[in-house]
Design goal:
316 residues; alpha/beta; Ubiquitin-like (UB roll); Rossmann fold; 12 strands; 18% strand
Length: 316
């Protein structure tokens, strides 16, 4: 190649090289500027964050100024001392034994009450099965049974006068001593003869009726306790008066009752009929009866009926 041509080629390459160097320097300068700008922005964000943390720490003076969260430090010395204590291990053994016994009592079937574990004493006309159903303890854990509550449920049976419940926890058995109701009088109504309890409740007879009981003849059941269904219970005041009368005047039974004159009866060994009424003034009525008998016997009064329902006796 001619020298002139080579010189021209060399001259043409020199501007291109200078242009590239200038471009690289400019790019490097821009990169440095961008990096510096990012550094300044990061520095500014850190300063803003520190400023916010200082503000937050000023609101919570209890926090350390570093802003860090302090983890709790556990002091293990008391635990090591406790682990070396004999009392501690003895207490653990007691707790473990108690837990084992509790689980045994809770899970073992021998501690649960069933029909064969309950025995009823003193039954004559009542059935053990009906009392068992009323007790409501089938499948109960023996240590959870309340003897007083079982007795209360059994006394809900109107034929049960008393019920004493005896629980043997370790044997898992229950014994119940029952006192059956014995009638104190008979209430003879058109619906049938009823047993009368001491409180006046009327019951259908069960089993043999005891002999020699006071009888109150009251076909329409007029002596029914006010507010009670007819024939379900006699008025206790009438029953008490009838019992007192029968105790003081043997032989007056049967007594009669009607709504007009109350209790009435034929005086034993005499032709006189007595209207007794319903009150409890037994002593005063007996005195009036003795005075009326004296008047009749002396002939100063005549009649066939002695009425004791009032303060003074009337003979008619």
């Amino acid at each position: 190649m001619p020298r002139d041509s080579m010189a021209n080629a060399t001259k043409s390459r020199q501007p291109n090289t200078q242009q590239r160097d200038t471009t690289r320097r400019a790019a490097s300068l821009h990169a440095s500027q961008r990096e510096a700008a990012r550094s300044r922005m990061a520095q500014r964000r850190r300063q803003q964050l520190k400023q916010r943390m200082r503000t937050f720490e000023s609101l919570l003076p209890g926090l350390p100024e570093t802003g860090g969260v302090a983890l709790p430090r556990w002091e293990l010395t008391p635990l090591k001392r406790l682990a070396g204590s004999r009392l501690f291990w003895a207490l653990l053994v007691v707790i473990a034994m108690a837990g084992g016994l509790t689980a045994w009592f809770a899970l073992d079937e021998r501690w649960y009450i069933y029909r064969e574990d309950v025995h009823f004493n003193g039954l004559n006309y009542l059935e053990a099965e009906e009392l068992w159903q009323l007790s409501a303890i089938d499948g109960w854990q023996v240590f959870w049974i309340d003897a007083d509550e079982v007795g209360r449920r059994l006394r809900q049976n109107p034929y049960v006068a008393e019920a004493h419940v005896h629980i043997a926890p370790l044997a898992a058995t229950i014994t119940v001593d029952i006192t059956e109701v014995r009638p104190v009088a008979l209430w003879v109504t058109d619906a049938g003869t009823l047993w009368l309890r001491e409180d006046g409740l009327a019951l259908s007879p069960r089993g043999a009726t005891p002999p020699g009981l006071l009888q109150i003849l009251d076909g329409p059941a007029d002596a029914t306790l006010p507010g009670a269904p007819r024939g379900s219970a006699i008025d206790p005041a009438i029953l008490r008066s009838a019992q007192a009368l029968a105790n003081r005047l043997p032989g007056v039974s049967p007594l009669r009752y009607n709504a007009l004159v109350g209790l009435n009866f034929r005086l034993p060994n005499s032709p006189y009929w007595v209207y007794w009424g319903e009150g409890d003034e037994v002593e005063s009525k007996l005195e009036n009866l003795a005075a009326a008998e004296l008047l009749l016997a002396s002939g100063r009064a005549k009649g066939s009926v002695i009425d004791l329902r009032f303060e003074r006796p009337y003979i008619k």
